Amino acid sequence: MVVTRKLARPLAPEVAEQAVRDFATWPVRQVTPALILSAIRRSIASRLSFWDALIVETAIDAGATAILTEDLQHGQVIDGVRVVNPFASVSTFG
Is 6 inside any structural domain? Predict the structure, then answer.
């Protein structure tokens, strides 16, 4: 595992395992043809990459209020979904 061996400060295997267990409790959305078509339209209209548009469309479809990403503009709101860069300084999360 990369996080337990290759990082400058690797995680203990138990910590990495617990992180995976925590992530496994999150709901998973299936990518459907309708989401793909919506993402294509958004990608063209908004000049987002297809993959970023697919993330946005899936978040909207799921009723999410925010997405965590460093690939989009922090603080931007796209159809009611706020973009949050988890690596931005804490003072910019306001």
Answer: yes
Would you state the structure tokens that stand for residue 44, as one six-digit string?
Answer: 């063209």
34, part of any domain: no
What angle is formed at CA 55 by the lines to CA 46 and CA 18, rounded to 5 degrees?
155
Tokens in use for 86? Answer: 């988890």
And the tokens for 28? 């998973």
Tens digit of pLDDT for each residue in 10-59? 889 999 999 999 999 998 999 999 999 999 999 999 999 999 999 999 99
Farthest CA pair distance, the chain: 45
